[in-house]
Amino acid sequence: MSRLLPALLVALLLAGCATSPAREPPRELDFAFAPEATLRAAAEVLMANGYVVRYADAELGRLEAVFSRWPGYRVLVEVSGQGEQSRVSLTATRGGRPLPPQTLDRLLVEMQDQLGMWR
After folding, report:
1. Is the dihedral of CA 75, 81, 82, 86 positive or negative?
2. Residue 88: in which H helix or E strand, if any?
3. b/e per residue, 27-49, with b = 16+ CB within 10 A?
4. Which of 56, 64, 76, 91 gives 20 to 30 Å between its CA and that of 24?
5. Could you give the CA distance from residue 96 to residue 50 in angstroms, rounded to a whole number?
6. Under 8 Å between Cβ of 75 and 104
């Protein structure tokens, strides 16, 4: 019994280390463009900002990109919609920890510019 208690305490402490961090809500924005055009604009904006697109699937409306130098950011783009309406959702992590959603605002503004929404 005396050996069981310390082992149980160590197991409980290690279980706390294995929990995943809280997930930040995504940053979302609606566009008056087809989902394919919105996903393409997201890829172009990310590449222009030094990100490397690791995965993109137009049918699923998903794109994953990583920052090509330190610090290693990872951005996940999800686009949904029909016809000429789409909603883009961005989430970002650094070292497996979520970044605050407002850090993605600049990318969304650049996507609007890429799609010609300010012209």
Report:
1. negative
2. strand 85-94
3. bebebebbbeebbbbbbebbeee
4. 56
5. 19
6. yes
pLDDT digits (tens, 9 = 90+) for 76-116: 999 999 999 999 999 999 988 999 988 899 999 999 999 98
Q: What is residue 78's three-state secondary structure?
A: strand
Helix (H) or strand (E) holding 4: helix 4-17
pTM for the model: 0.77
Nearest to 106 by CA among 90, 93, 94: 90
Longest dimension (CA), the chain: 74
Rounded (10°) CA dihedral 4, 8, 11, 16: -170
